[in-house]
Design a protein that fits this description.
Length: 378
């Protein structure tokens, strides 16, 4: 093991399928990820001044220009108390035609507009057309969210820095101020590589995890959250008042190199919800649980809506639906492990008014998992 540990370094394999080489969404060829992280100030909240604990994360879906070349995509809503812009066009046309950005709830507008500005630069003299995809979760427990500290320059920096390789996880980019199952949460990623007999395709997932009750947290079926009480590791969101239960949200982006059509992408996106459920999420009433899946197995599809003259007929490939179930399992397992990776990578962070979100303790996770697996074997 080199560098910072990830979930499987502490808890062992999660699920049955093997991960890709980096166990990240960037195992899907051409996918790139970039972050801009904003951390400034300490002490009492002064709106507009801080403390600041936020940022923006960008996912570029392929190695071309996503404003000019689209890929097939689909989306799913588990619970809709959240925002992921641009989904109506994806539902209508089945095409993702921009990078994807993730940020905090009150910065969606500026990030969306900034992507429109990047599209204008990309389009050249023919003019721009873009319906950017921007998702959010709420970081106002730790961050001066009403101070609107994310700017167009921060989106542009994340996009300029987007790269392959293993993306940073935890307190980075859009995940900087997020809380998950009462621990410090944030950005996490994972992947699964299907056996050659199932096509040899890769499925990668990136999450911005900011949801969940402590007692319901499970990792590979092990009830980790029940064993780490709020007395041992406090939840900064508790107490939230009489009857308060699960709050917060999660965005999951699923990528694959399989040749899927839009309806199949929609089905793949839906399976991210099962990965959330396996870790203890329910799509609670106050939660925004929104998922998008895109497939790079068909390329060369124009992103523009301008009419083509003469009329063009394009041939596309499609995975037989009878072979899609292994991809479903890959999305489920990769979502579950991406959430676990977000928790393991995140570090204790103090934000506005001295509120602290504590990291999931690595030694306790290792001990709990080892004990439960020992009992299973016995």
């Amino acid at each position: 093991m080199t560098g910072a540990p990830r979930a499987r370094d502490l808890a062992g394999p999660i699920g049955l399928l093997p991960p890709g080489p980096m166990n990240a969404i960037t195992d899907v060829p051409g996918v790139r990820v970039g972050h801009t992280t904003l951390i400034a100030g300490d002490g009492p909240l002064v709106v507009g001044q801080g403390p600041v604990r936020t940022g923006v994360t960008v996912i570029v879906p392929h190695d071309g220009d996503p404003f000019r070349e689209g890929v097939f995509a689909g989306c799913h809503r588990l619970n809709g108390n959240g925002e992921l812009t641009g989904l109506e066009w994806i539902r209508e046309a089945g095409l993702l035609s921009t990078p994807i950005a993730l940020t905090n709830t009150h910065s969606v507008g500026v990030v969306r507009d900034a992507l429109c500005g990047v599209a204008a630069l990309s389009s050249g003299p023919e003019g721009a057309w873009a319906l950017p995809v921007v998702g959010e979760t709420y970081d106002g427990t730790l961050n001066d969210i009403d101070g609107h500290h994310v700017s167009a320059e921060h989106l542009e920096a994340a996009l300029a820095g987007a790269a392959g390789g293993l993306p940073a996880e935890g307190n980075v980019g859009g995940g900087t101020g997020m809380i998950c199952h009462g621990f410090k949460g944030g950005i996490g990623t994972a992947s699964r590589r299907l056996p050659d007999a199932d096509g040899g395709f890769t499925v990668g997932v990136l999450v911005q995890a900011n949801y969940g009750e402590r007692a319901r947290l499970a990792i590979d079926g092990i009830p980790v959250g029940r064993e780490i009480s709020l007395t041992e590791v406090p939840d900064p969101r508790v107490p939230r008042g009489p009857g308060a239960t699960e709050t917060g949200s999660i965005i999951a982006i699923v990528a694959t190199d399989a040749p899927l059509l839009p309806g199949q992408c929609e089905r793949l996106a839906q399976r991210a919800g099962l990965g959330v459920a396996r870790t203890g999420g329910a799509g609670a009433h106050s939660s925004g649980d929104l998922f998008l899946a895109f497939a790079t197995g068909n390329r060369g599809i124009p992103a523009t809506d301008r009419p083509a003259h003469p009329v063009v007929i394009r041939e596309v490939r499609m995975l037989d639906d009878a072979a899609i179930t292994p991809l479903f399992w890959a999305a489920i397992e990769a979502t579950e492990e991406a959430i676990a990776n977000a928790l393991v990578a995140a570090r204790t962070l103090t934000g506005i008014d001295g509120v602290t979100a504590h990291a999931l303790p690595h030694d306790r996770l290792r001990e709990i998992v080892a004990r439960h697996r020992s009992v299973r074997r016995g």
